[in-house]
């Protein structure tokens, strides 16, 4: 039973465009919501994270939007670059991380 | 390099053999986690340690799996009598503090059971 649902499974965006990935959860005990970026053959790398008392967090071209009442959060990648082509995972923490199934992002030059 | 390291990076074994993986966390990180990731899926939690104490084990961790963290430093994950279904990437992560939010992952060990 997947505790974090992630969509879409994959997306293609043009260079300079915006990538949007959505996640939803049910467990209200989750207290921290990170996003990880993973390249083939590598471990996940922490990208950006948010606490549930904040509605938005921005770091460079990456923004998390968080809607506590809807139990949803999303990642926006602005000005997408070919180097952003990777798989992105949302996650939610109680004492461990529960991950979504991942979104493969392809940025076309 | 001060990140999480894992050894070996790749392991091919025959069904029924035992394998052991090692994880070295970031220095001074008191929590260490093991996850398993199959192709096309997100990592799934297996177990975690706070210092040398194993505090939680997922139901995914059958009795063929055992993990240790002697002296609260590096950790080992052993799989006995491997099965083809054990083929996956085994990821280690570590974190520090209480609460320990940020988990930093190693490069993983890719296990292939033939």
Topology:
The complex is a heterodimer of chains A (109) and B (114).
Chain A: E1 4-7, E2 10-14, E3 19-25, E4 33-38, E5 45-50, E6 56-59, E7 62-67, E8 72-77, E9 86-93, E10 97-99, E11 103-108
Parallel strand pairs in A: 2-11
Antiparallel strand pairs in A: 1-3, 3-8, 4-5, 4-9, 6-7, 7-8, 9-10, 9-11
Chain B: E1 5-7, E2 10-13, E3 19-24, E4 31-37, E5 44-50, E6 53-57, E7 65-68, E8 75-79, E9 88-95, E10 104-105, E11 109-113
Parallel strand pairs in B: 2-11
Antiparallel strand pairs in B: 1-3, 3-8, 4-5, 4-9, 5-6, 7-8, 9-10, 9-11
What do you see in this structure?
Chain A has 109 residues and is mainly beta. Chain A has one domain (4-81, 92-108): Immunoglobulin-like (Sandwich), CATH 2.60.40. Chain A has strands spanning 4-7, 10-14, 19-25, 33-38, 45-50, 56-59, 62-67, 72-77, 86-93, 97-99, 103-108. In chain A, strands 2, 4, 5, 9, 10 and 11 form a six-stranded mixed sheet that branches. Chain A has a five-stranded antiparallel sheet with strand order 1-3-8-7-6, with no helix packed on it. In chain A, a hairpin with a 3-residue loop joins strand 9 and strand 10. Chain A is globular, with a radius of gyration of 13 Å. Chain A starts with a strand and ends with a strand. By secondary structure, chain B is mainly beta. Chain B has strands at residues 5-7, 10-13, 19-24, 31-37, 44-50, 53-57, 65-68, 75-79, 88-95, 104-105, 109-113. In chain B, strands 2, 4, 5, 6, 9, 10 and 11 form a seven-stranded mixed sheet that branches. In chain B, strand 5 and strand 6 form a beta hairpin. The radius of gyration of chain B is 13 Å and the shape is globular. Classes of the chains: A mainly beta (109), B mainly beta (114). The A-B interface holds A 4, 6, 31-32, 34, 36, 41-46, 49, 89, 91, 93, 95-102 and B 4, 33, 35, 40-45, 48, 55-56, 91, 93, 99, 101-108, 110.
């Amino acid at each position: 039973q997947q505790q974090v649902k992630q969509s879409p499974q994959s997306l293609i965006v043009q260079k300079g465009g915006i990538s949007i990935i959505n996640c939803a959860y049910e467990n209200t005990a989750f207290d921290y919501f990170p996003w990880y970026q993973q390249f083939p053959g590598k471990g996940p790398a922490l990208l950006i994270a948010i606490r549930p008392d904040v509605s938005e967090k921005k770091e460079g071209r990456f923004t998390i939007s968080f809607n506590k009442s809807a139990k949803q959060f999303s990642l926006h990648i602005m000005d997408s670059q070919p180097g952003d082509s990777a798989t992105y995972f949302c996650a939610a923490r109680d004492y461990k991380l529960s991950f979504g199934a991942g979104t493969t992002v392809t940025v076309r030059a | 390099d001060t990140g999480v390291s894992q050894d070996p990076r790749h392991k091919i074994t025959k069904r029924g053999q035992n394998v052991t993986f090692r994880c070295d966390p970031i220095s001074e990180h008191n929590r260490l986690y093991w996850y398993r990731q199959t192709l096309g899926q997100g990592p799934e939690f297996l177990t975690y340690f706070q210092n040398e104490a194993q505090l939680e084990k997922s139901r995914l961790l059958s009795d063929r799996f055992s993990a240790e963290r002697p002296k609260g430093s590096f950790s080992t994950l052993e799989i006995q009598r491997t099965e083809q279904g054990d083929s996956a990437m085994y990821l280690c992560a570590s974190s520090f503090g209480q609460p320990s939010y940020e988990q930093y992952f190693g490069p993983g060990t890719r296990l292939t059971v033939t």
